[in-house]
Structures are given as structure tokens and as C-alpha cells.
Amino acid sequence: MSNLYERFAGCFPKDLDRPFLETPEGPALSYANVEAATALYGGYLLSLGVEPGDRVAVQVEKCPEAVLLYLATLRVGAVFLPLNTAYTGAEISYFLGDSKPRVVVCDPKTEDAVRPLGLEAGAAHVVTLGEDGSGSLPDGAATAQAMSGSVPRDADDLAAILYTSGTTGRSKGAMLSVENLWSNADTLRQYWGFTDQDVLLHALPIFHVHGLFVAINCVLASASKMLFLPKFDAKTVMELLPRATVMMGVPTFYTRLLGQDDFNADMCKNMRLFISGSAPLLSETWIEFESRIGHAILERYGMTETGMNTSNPLNGERIAGSVGPALPGVEIRVVDEAGKSVPVGEPGVLEVRGPNVFKGYWNMPEKTAEEFRVDGFFITGDIAKIDANDYVCIVGRSKDLIITGGYNVYPKEIEEVIDAMDGIVESAVIGVSDPDFGERVVAVVKSSGTPPDPKAMTTQLKTTLAGYKVPKDIFFVEALPRNVMGKVQKAELRKTYGG
Fold first, then answer.
1. In the beta sheet, which residues pair with residue 79?
2. Packing angle between helix 111-120 and helix 89-99, nearest 10 degrees?
3. Which residues pair with 350 in a beta bridge?
4. Contact call for residues 437 and 405 (beta carbons, < 8 A)
5. What residue spans define the domains of the chain?
6. 260: number of CA atoms within 13 Å, CB side?
7. Which of 73, 205, 407, 486 has the fewest CB atoms within 10 Å of its CB?
8. How far from 46 is each of 103, 144, 149, 161, 270, CA to CA, in Å?
9. Which of 396, 460, 451, 397 is nearest to 427 (CA)?
10. What's the first-to-final CA gap in the chain, in angstroms?
């Protein structure tokens, strides 16, 4: 059987009373609780008519019940579709209209706004799940007939769809199969040395690959435990570090910890591994952390479409500014624009092939075909160099992707919204260096007359875009710099406004 939940369940400890998840406020969930609760949640989903391959779209706050819903969705053979809690109504309308979910799960606080969007998209049911574990979903599960076993699935069947922004302004649904997720989880478990004695400090959101698939799936595949925080808070993290052995975070986590005067090596004495991803980790941060705490942060590289591709080694040299060699079973190469391999140490487009690479983009066969070579390599769009020891260094992004606080932002999406505003001729959105978020979003705008008030623009943008996409700064210019081909020279804008 290739049902992903069954694969994880096969890794559960013999003693199912061992803890799986613990929150600061509530009682711990044991693996026995996971088995029982997912049977009830799964039974309720089945009662709602969910069939294999149906999408279950979820926009809820981070809570233990959301993890149970994820696992129950896998158990019934459906496709889990997590949505960022910062997405606005306009964004949610697009995702639901594109994915056509059978069931939509939202926060009780947003039900009035989400319900009509779900019904308009053809969802049969819109149910709720609150941050405190309340809502019509857990209420329905409490009285549902518990399912037994899991719905059979094949390795190539879809297990999840995650939307990733695109340079065209339209988000793309990356289709991830049972094998994509399982192979990556099993590889990372072994490569990073996870055992049932580990305790993962989990402060990441669970609507993207890092917090959901990398973190939680590693715990499930190793029968370990996690300390589950609703969000990152430096003081709370420092209090819990003595009880943890592993922490996964975005670079912002580490810069904020280093910003605490009382953050020290003693509170990390039980830690065996700090992992960073979702955005480039500055070498300065890596060096300062090792000097102060005595741990070399393990940086790795992945994407929504592929899960993890490369990683610095658990045992071996970890290099600041490098994301390490390819993971076992994953092939990588660096090529020029014609697809020809470049010499060692030369920059080029990074391409990847392996069991972790997604099946394609939902309802976008043409876009899928564009992103794959005929030999099966996926074109990441990231610019990288590979040294003589096979260590990879990401040096840029050919598609203008901005990564702010670990979240992906594509300028085109924001530019289209700004350009549609009254009095705006055109805009260029760039990412500039930021000590806290890694990069911050900046808009450079040309207006048709007197420039509008930046604060008013920001307020308007927040009604359409998720908060992390809204530019932190808006600058007005007489004209945007262009090259001889008429293309806006964003490199020049970064030099001008990157200070």
C-alpha cells in the first residue's frame, strides 16, 4: 500500500503512548491519539463525500488539530491543499476557483468571507477549525464513524498541492505525489540523523513545504517528538531549547535569537542540530552563531516543487554561504541558457532530477512542459555554482524571486496590482537586503501626476495582497531605468534603493 499516512504509521513507535506533539498550553498528543483522531477526522471527511483525489483546501491558524487534518486527508486518499493564512479574499478566490476543492476548511473568524468563495468555486462543504481547536470540523469528527485502515493509493497519486507564485502574476499549483513526499522525508530522516530520541522545536508555519513536509514529516518518519509553537517568539524558543535536540528555522529566526543578549551556548547544550532554509542565510549570521553558540548551522536548499534538493552534511564540513551537495538519490547540474553544462565553479541555472521532483503544475500542462528538460530535469530558475567538492552555492535567482522572512514573493504579481491603481503609470518591485527578513519588498513607482500618498497606497494594497507581499517602502521616480531593449534595469534599482 502506498497511502502516505500508512507509510508514516509504519514508522510509529511500538509504544503508541509515546508523545508526538506537545504545545506550551495543552496536553501532549501521543501517537495513539494521532491514530484515533485521524480515524475520526477521516471518517468525517468520508461522510462529507471526500473521495480519492479530491482536494481539501485549508486556511487555518497553526494548531495541533490542523496537523491531524493533514494526516486524515492523506489517510482518506485526498489531496491536502494548505493556504497561507495571510492570503486575502481575492487571492483565496483564485486558489479555490483553480483547484475546485470538495471541502474548504477555514477559521471560524473568516467563515463569513470564505464560505461564499468556497461555494462559488463548487465546494460541497465549507467547515471551520479555530486556533483553539474548536469549530464545525472537530465537532463533526467527534460524532463521526471512525474509519479503519487507509484508502489505498499508488506512489504516483497526488498527496498535496501547494501554490507557488509565478512571474506571470498567476500562482501555480505544484502537484506533489505520495512518492515525492515520502522519498524526501525518508532521505532527510537518514541524512540528518533523526531518531526516536529527537525532539524538534517547531516554530514554523505549516502552510508551506518547510514547516509542513520537512519538519513534520521528518518527525513522523522517525517516531520522534516535537514542541509545537503557534509562531516564532525568541523568548519562548530560548525557554524551550534546553528540552529540544533539533530546530528548523528561516534565517530570520537566527538573527532574532542573536539579537537577544541572554541567548547563550548553555541553553543549547542538548541541541545536536540547527537547520536553516527557505531563504539564503547570510555568512555573517552563520559565523556569529557558530562563534557565540558553538554550532555550525546546517543550511540546505529546496523548493515548493521539489522539497529538499541539497544539504550541508550532518557529519562533515558545513560551509557558510553554501547549501551543500545534492541529497542521496537527487541529481543536480548547472547549465547555461542553452542547457549545456558549465565548467566547475561557473554560475548557471540549477536543474534537478529525482523522486522528490513534483508531477507538474495543476491545470497548466504547457507551463509544466516549459519547466522540464526532455531528460526529466526540472529547471529551478535559480542561479548557482557547484565547486570541485560538489558543494552548491546559490548566487541569484533568474526569475526575480524575492524571499522575505522565508516567504516567496514574485514582483510581477505586486506590480500588476500597483499598476492598476489610479494615477500610476508603471512600477518595478525589487528585493533589497534586510538584516531581519533577509530581503524586504520595495516598490519603485512612476505616477502620471502628483504622486499619491505612500501610506494610502499601502493601505489599499493590504486589501488585495498578503501582508508579506506589500512593499515596506514605496519610492517615486520620473522614469524607471531601462536598457537598450527597453527592459527595466532592476539591478540599478537595487543599487539605488538597497541601502
1. 55
2. 30
3. 334
4. yes
5. 4-153, 402-497
6. 18
7. 486
8. 11, 9, 13, 20, 43
9. 451
10. 55
Grid cell for residue 269: 547544550
Could you tell me the pLDDT band of residue 167, with boundaries at 50, 70 and 90?
very low
- In this structure, what C-alpha cell is assigned to residue 211? 514547516
As a whole number of angstroms, the distance between CA 482 and CA 298 comes to 40
Helices 64-75 and 31-47, axial angle in degrees (round to 10) = 60
DSSP code of 145? P
459: DSSP letter: H
As beta bridge partners, residue 336 has none
Asked if 449 and 476 count as a contact pair (C-beta separation under 8 A), the reply is no
- CA distances (Å), 141 to each of 19, 50, 93, 128, 330, in order? 22, 14, 27, 12, 40
Mean pLDDT of the chain: 94
DSSP type of residue 323: -
- Indicate whether 349 pLDDT > 70: yes
The CATH code of domain 4-153 reads 3.40.50.12780
Task: Output the nine-digit C-alpha cell for 78.
Answer: 485526498
DSSP track, 437-458: TEEEEEEEEEESSSPPPHHHHH
Count of residues in the chain: 499
Cell 497553526 belongs to which residue?
A: 62
3-class secondary-structure state, position 241: helix
Which residues, in sequence order, are CB contacts of 296 under 8 Å at separation 6+?
Answer: 286, 290, 318
DSSP 8-state assignment for residue 462:
T
- pLDDT, greater one: 160 or 26: 160
Q: Is 168 a residue whose pLDDT tops 60?
A: no
What letter represents residue 266's amino acid? D
Instruction: Order the strands of the 172-177 sheet from edge to edge.
Output: 125-128, 103-106, 55-59, 79-82, 158-164, 172-177, 360-361
Split at pLDDT 50, 70, 90, the class of 499 is low
- Spatial CA neighbour of 192 closest among 163, 159, 217: 217
Whether residue 477 contacts residue 470, with contact meaning beta carbons closer than 8 Å, is answered with no
Cell digits for 271? 541541541
Q: What is the β-pairing status of strands 172-177 and 158-164?
A: antiparallel
Q: Which of 96, 40, 48, 100 is nearest to 71 (CA)?
A: 40
Residue with cell 499598476: 419
3-state secondary structure of 11: coil
What's the Cα-to-Cα distance from 401 to each of 305, 437, 469, rounded to whole Å?
A: 15, 14, 12
* pLDDT recorded at residue 411: 85
Give the 3-state secondary structure of residue 44.
helix
Instruction: Of 414, 177, 128, 146, give the one whose Cα is nearest residue 306.
Output: 177
User: How far apart, in whole angstroms, are the C-alpha atoms of residue 346 and residue 344?
Assistant: 6
CATH T-level fold of 402-497? GMP Synthetase; Chain A, domain 3 (3.30.300)
**pLDDT, position 269:** 96
The candidate with the shortest Cα–Cα distance to 124, out of 85, 78, 83, is 78
CA angle 211–212–217, rounded 5-degree value:
110
